[in-house]
Structures are given as structure tokens and as C-alpha cells.
């Protein structure tokens, strides 16, 4: 069996993967592969048509908004993903961004290295404590709940959340406060974290209107997908101090140029889609991918098969 690998995976997972087939990374041979492991590759109709032997696409992660799912189904090609295995790493980045924005560490380091600070404890960089504030979740998945666990237990934060699938009963089970609508989260939270998937319903669900509900002292954190937030509206809100700042691990149409307007703002912390980029997360996801390949080869159903 030939397996197409779009990008490098964890070395330990790669060594395991070799047991189940011949690994190919040359696009000129893609028509020979039965399995394709996808990290960040856009798969439109034209690309899928080149994969003449393809039977299974495995997502190295959870999101598959860059894949023409309908055409995959039409071609009778299966799709599975590996959700949740990187949740802890992304959750830790959410907390990191909250702390960095609140304590202005990114500004302190840059300004100190630029010789703009010549004293200790400069009052101009006075920050805020994260503890005992309110953390609001838009989308209540594994990443959001892991971040909530860290923040509730470690920082004594109040946790509120909204998603279409969340019920008061589920919220009670998760140990969070239920919000009946998006507006409630935006109005009450000191930190709003976006964790929903990107689809037709969530494209640009955060616009000028939604941002206007947030407190001037509140921060927006997005580690999900860039297109969930209207970036022009976010820029306007940040420049005009309608909100205090934003932590962004994702932007629309990645990768973006370093000259991107949002990246020029002092109240923005940006990482280029690095949420899941830890050794531990890559190993867990990589081994989950290998398990899916193994099950497929043995004629078994993959654990997270979508269709």
C-alpha cells in the first residue's frame, strides 16, 4: 500500500507508519497512493482528480475546511480526522496569549531591546492579573474545555460558554456557566476565546457588531480559524480601543505577510498557526494517524471516520 505524506510528521510516528506501507512525498506519484495524510494541503476538485487510486484521506488534526468534502464523497473517498490529540497544547497557547497580553511582555521585551526602556518596573507597562476574571468560550470543544480547566483550577477564573450544541445540562456537567447566546459571552467575558470550527454558519460570525458588545478592557483570543473573525472589523476595534487587544494564532488566507495590518498593532500577539506545535502534541496526533492507517489496511473502521 502506498501512502502519500504531504508534510513531515513526528519522527516516531513516521517510523511506525513505515510498517504499513510505502511512504511517498513526491507529488508526481500521487496518482499511485491509496492513502493521503493531510496537514495543511488544500484539496479541491482539480487536486482530487489527480489522486486516481485514493481511497482514504486522513487529517493530521481536526479541521478540514480546505477540502472539497462533497467531491470526496462523490468520488467515494473516505475521510477521517484526529481531533482532540492536540487540545492540551492549543489550550496552553490560549493561556500564554492571555498572560502575554495582560502583562504586556511582548511590548516590554521589544521596547527594552530597542533601548526605549532605561529603568526597572516602568509604570507605562502596568499590566493586569488574569486570576478571578471571566473566561468566555465561543465553541465548547475539547480545546476550550481544556483551557477552561487550566484557568478555573489554576487562576480561579469564572468560566462561561456558548455553542449551538451546548445545553444547560451539558454546561453543568462540564462545570461551566451556560450562556444562551453569543452576545451574552461577549458582554460578560474579560477574555473571549474562539474555538468553533469554520463552516458556512461560522464564517465572519465576529464582526463590528459582535466586537461592540465586548468590554473595552476585554481581549479576543482566536486559535480556531482566521475567517471566523472579520479582520477589517477587528483591526478597527483594536485601533480605536473598542477592545484591549487580541491574541491570534490564525489569520484569514494563511500564510500572511509580515506587513499584515493586524501584525503592526502593539495590542496584538500573533503566532503563525503554532497552537498544536509541540513535540508531545505532534507525537499524539502522529500516532493517531498511524492507527487510522493500520485500521484501514486491516479492513477495520477508523476511530474518527467522518464518511
UniProtKB/TrEMBL annotation:
InterPro entries: D-iso_2-hydroxyacid_DH_PdxB, D-isomer_2_OHA_DH_cat_dom, D-isomer_DH_CS, D-isomer_DH_NAD-bd, NAD(P)-bd_dom_sf. GO terms for molecular function: NAD binding; oxidoreductase activity, acting on the CH-OH group of donors, NAD or NADP as acceptor. The keyword Oxidoreductase applies. Keywords: NAD, Oxidoreductase. PROSITE patterns: D_2_HYDROXYACID_DH_3 (PS00671). Gene3D superfamilies: NAD(P)-binding Rossmann-like Domain. Residues 95-275 form the D-isomer specific 2-hydroxyacid dehydrogenase NAD-binding domain. It comes from the Bacteria. Residues 29-304 form the D-isomer specific 2-hydroxyacid dehydrogenase catalytic domain. Belongs to the D-isomer specific 2-hydroxyacid dehydrogenase family. This is D-3-phosphoglycerate dehydrogenase.
